[in-house]
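step 4 of 6: structure.
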Amino acid sequence: MINAVGRDIPDEILEITGKEPFQGNFYLDDKPMTKVGPTIRPIMNNKKSKLVASIREALIKCEAHDGMTVSFHHHFRDGDLIVNMVMKEIHDMGFKDITICATSLGKAHDPLVPMIEDGTITRIESSGVRGRIGEAISQGKLQGLAIMRSHGGRVRALTTGEAHVDIAFIGAPTSDDYGNLRGIGGKADCGVLSYAIVDGNHADHCVAITDCLVPYPNFPAHISQTKVDYVCVVDEIGVPSKIASGAAKPTTDQRKLLMAQYCTDVVVNTPWFKDGFSYQTGVGGASIASTQYLAEIMRDRNIHMGFGVGGLTKAMCQLLDDGMARVMLDVQDFDLDAVHNLKNVNHHRIPAGVYANPLNKGAVVNKLDYVVLASLEVDVHFNCNVVVGSDGMITGAQGGHPDTAQGAKCAIVICPLLQGRIPAICTDVTTVTTPGESIDVVVTDYGVAVNPARQDILQALREADCVPLRTIEELRDTAYSIVGEPDKVEFEDRIVGIIEARDGTIIDVVRQIKEIKQPAVYKKKGRRRANG
Amino acid sequence: MTNPNKYRLRRTMMFLNCQKPGLIKDPYIYKPDSIMLDLEDAVAEREKDAARYSLYHALQEIDYRGVERVVRINGLDTDLWREDVRCAVAGGCDSIRIPKTETADDVRTVEYAIAEAEREFRRPEGSVLLMAALESARGVINAMSICDSSERLFGIALSGGDYSKDLQISISGTGVEFMGARQHMIIAARAAKVQCFDTVWTNLNDMAGFRKEVEIIHSMGFDGKSIVNPRQIPVVHEIYTPKEKDIIFAEKVIKEIDQKKAMGIGVFTVDGKMIDIAFYDGAKRTIALAKASGVYKGDL
Amino acid sequence: MEILKTAVAGTLESSDCLVTIEPARSGLQLDLESAVMQQYGRRIAEVAMETLDRLNVQNARVSIVDKGALDCTIKARVECAAMRAADHEGRVNWGGVIR
């Protein structure tokens, strides 16, 4: 069936998953829904200790079994040691047919590939997958379907019961012996535990893993003792240098600075840029530079940010410290500056559900004026692809992209026109991960395109005459005139994954890549021989 | 007839190594006035041939969107420069930069080769312009005759690196060692009615020093500066953007002189003060700069 | 054009390609590896073969390792490698075989 972004979602997939094709951003607005809760084992016996000696003991006590679903958060980013540690134990105990329900998976988890190959792991649900797991899924090695859902979408899936976690493993920088967990302190300081809070609420069993046991009570707890069954102390839960690694140095790349300048010009010349405006941005060089340009203009015009939200960086926290922003709402910390900034009383932790769940009574993203995002590809319908590379290989994550893009009044995507020879502005994205109706402005090094659905923005930018305005088709044509129109990437028929829209409908599917032989060999007979 | 491009705006001329495809594929997004595709110092000795093939196809196939394409050929003391000229002219370059120019004869030697190449590759005679880089004490001393050497020559440029070696000094960053050369060259260029360009600033970590130097050469009268990194372009363009009061004044000067001349009146006043006809060309330049900088939306 | 010896042109930097040409007894063989094989492999091979054709290279083994080079770079590298392999010196026929 063709969905609202023109993608064909095969009936068999709709049947297997019991899902509907994507119907547009507001399909489920105001529709009644029921929340489900976990089945838990109350702890009334005050003599019972929650401490377990090993992950194996925790697995046994939580009744680990074939076919179960285990969950993880990604606050330790590339420094995460929890996923591999737990999965090794599960693998060694011989369990099969496991579903991993993670908030994200990355290069740190390359060691899971053999477990995918031997059938230990048969399904993966994540906001995306980087590194070798992505390749393995694209190559068809995962027996079941991979489900890619946004940060908000994951909370929604767990809340509705569409996804169900048997055992959640929550890496906690600090914990006491009764499972009060905090994201701050310890050796693997990551600041917040925002993505894992929903696991505490909805998993049947919840195991805290820490390398820093502190005296009871570890308060104020980010995840409460009332959610945690067991506490396991291990030597190391993360590699600190890789946890807060996102602190991009200020870029000196003029191409990025150019796009940052265009982006800032778009922000300051649209109607929402006034005292009290709200803003979210990313960790890329252009995003950070753009935040710095923005800060200068805010100072000049005495305009203060009402709130900033998201994965936070030094550049955003600086605004708070300088009194240029009133509040920061934090779901993730990309650098140590952001972690340390949590000391500021106006820097608040929020759970992923509060941040982005589409099916609660209104998430923070709904109050966003601006979000600045990146994208691997944007097509002439403004659809974005942040998960599948132009070569067809799974290589990225939705993260909060679809959530914030839908929520913000002005969603800006920064994207260089060309990535090497690959045109990032194209006729059709490889895979739709954020629908074009959510995207308002595309900023490239060759000019800025506004979604024609947003005549208000177009008019504001025309009047300001601040950036080179192009249509999205013009940008695409420019790209193709430089690099040539790309051939379509060929896929196998088999579907290896689905991309969920925020609301759980299917916005696109991911197919197995066709293995291509490298080098390809071309031959031509010599004329002498042909004549002879 | 003078080539209409001879006096085009050249605030920034960005150096690019012809041998680096990643650099030459789209430098126009940074909006330099000119790019200088280098076959000389940036290209290793054993890649001189490779650089020419890259240059030829870049000139032929990449749409540089109106940015002037200057090619720096190898020095006249090499056996490379003649083929460099053929390649550049055949490819369709706008201008050729002669390195290490010492005398007017150097310019005329290259001019002859260009004319020959124009005939060989059926380009209109005079379509390829010339500029001369002065990189030695002798070259700087001969600035006047070099400026006067050819109708094709649109300007001269100081090349600070080699010049400082010839002077037996090192570059201080204060500009004191270039004071004489700069002053001498700008006077010669103005006398010959050609343009004058300043040397590169290579320390990318010292953007404040760069800015200061651009302010100095701007106030000395230089038409522009050689650029080694796109980051330097916005700084130069900003400094070369006329101030609002200068634009308003220039506009008044042009309108007053045009009007009075049409009426046959030879006395001009702006804001109640008498002005000289000599203000006219300067005012025209101010408006042209203001247009290029995107700050002039008037009707002149 | 006779390929007399093995020659190389280009680099493995982004937006460039590395072209190697070796003598072969009969016919042309092109081995192509590319970071953008799916989208541009066909086009790169086409450009390389056309270029070799213009240079009248009939017998050679050519290998290209491409890092996202534009057509103009593919041409330039193939030409340079071929000219080197043929020991070509002196004036180049710009706008003739090179175009």
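step 5 of 6: annotate
 - Chain B touches chain A through ten residues (CB under 8 Å).
 - The beta strands of chain B are 12-17, 34-38, 68-72, 95-98, 129-134, 153-158, 195-198, 224-227, 268-270, 273-275.
step 6 of 6: archive
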